[in-house]
Every structure is written in structure tokens, then in C-alpha cells.
Amino acid sequence: MTTSASTAADTSAFRGRIGPDPRSGHYPAPHRYRLHLSPSCPHCLGLALTHALLDLDDVLPLNLLPAVPDAPECGYAALRPLYEASAHQYQGPATVPVLSDDWTGRIVSTHAPDILRDLAERFGGHGPALYPDHARDAIDALARRCERDINQAAQHAGSLGSDHPGYEAALTTLLDALAALERRLADRRYLLGDRLTVADVQLWVTLVQLDTVHRWHLDAAAVHRIADHRGLWSYARRLAALPAFARHLDLDAIARRHHARCRGQEAAGAAVQIVDWTTAHAPAPRVTPAPR
Questions:
Q1: What pTM was estimated for this model as a whole?
Q2: Quick count: other Cβ atoms within 10 Å of Cβ 152?
């Protein structure tokens, strides 16, 4: 199995933040910063979606790197000079995502959750309120549930294999989380009501990862049980039709990264595609800004 998506976020080498004004050191300024992302990385996908939803193309440039890392420990040779300029005798991997400062030539942050919050809080003043003040605790709780009860549970089940006694417990954790999220969406358009937030971005990326990566290591019966949450997958297809989501979903890149890195055994669930992401053409509603 591949390494958990949480690993990059939990072991980040750089944890700088963007402050509100020049006294902060790193403060919002057009064209000062740059995002280095790979379309195959789930953390990067969430950041790319947030960047697109906030319409930051003219403020914060994107540097898109290949799907498959070309350096040790899932690193990129092109990022090595940036890492070495940012930390004396840096020995770790040069991984994505990276938020860099073009003024200094150094890295601000490699911690995806912090970068996402800074995009929404510091650069998103004229776009939709994707991380509104009143909902931040709920958004953070939903993000933790996506990571712990879906990503990690699916990966754990896949690494054990269906014959292992712990497989069903891990699968139950995953299915319970999907059921709870589906119930939450039963009477609302988005996770927090009628307005899209980064909670929806994070859940959508999690569902993409579940269908395009984790199901390859689950048995067919488990994947059918996952697919039975029809309301949740309908929600995923609806979001896939939004231009920002469709623009950054690179299924080929995800597949190439997965097959290049994965050492796990393929299971029967690999043959049971849950969503045809290429034909998600549901009408795309206008995203309504949430009150600040």
C-alpha cells in the first residue's frame, strides 16, 4: 500500500504562516508567493481546488510538477534547490505541496492544512468564504473525520487484506463514516448548508481517493457496500461538474502515481469502479459566498 495522505501533512519540514499585515513578515501581496503542486497528490488537489474556487490565478501563480516524483522519498529534483535554500544542509525529501516566497527564494510552508487556511483567510477576500469564522471548528472536525475514518481506515483495510481478522473492523469504521456523511447531506446541498466550503473540497478529494486509489486493495463486496451510499456519490458527481473541480481532476496522473508507488496486492475491488468521473455532467450551480 502507499503511504497515508496524512503523512506529508504531519511531518512537514516548514510551517510558516501568512500573516495579516507587513508586521507579520509573510503577508499577503500579489505575485509574491508561488504554489508548487502535483496533480496526482491528494493534498495538492485540495489546494488546487481552493486556489481555483478563490480565482487566485492572477495573484498566486501555480507551478505544476509531474504526476510521478523523480527523486527519493516521493521528492522532486526541481524543488531541491528551493529546499536547500530554505534550510542549511537540508537532508529530507523535496516533496509537494510547497508555498514559496519569490521575494526571498525560500519556502514558507509545506504543511497542506496551513496553506489551505492561508489561501482562504489571507488571499480569498474577494471570493467565496470557503473557511468562514463561524464554521471553522466544524470544518476542521470534518477534515479529521475524512482523514481518520475514511482515508486511514480504507488504507488499513487494504493493507490487511480481506482474510485478516482486522479487515472487517477497519471496513466498518469506513462505512460508518460514509453513512454519517450521507445522512448529513440528506437535507442540505453541501456539508454545512447551502454554501460550499473547504469541508466539501476535503470530502470530495477524499472520495476521489477512495474510488481511484483505495478500492484497488479492497475486495469486491466491500467496494459494492461503499458504492451503496448513492446520495454521497451523487454529491461527488455534482461537485465534479463544477469547473474548478473538473479543471484539476487528473485521473491519469492519480493512476500513474499510485501504480508507480504502490507495493500492495491488487484485490477484486479494483474492477468495481464507483463513479465514472469523466461523465459527471450534472448542472453546475453558482457557488454562493457565505457570510463572514
A1: 0.90
A2: 17
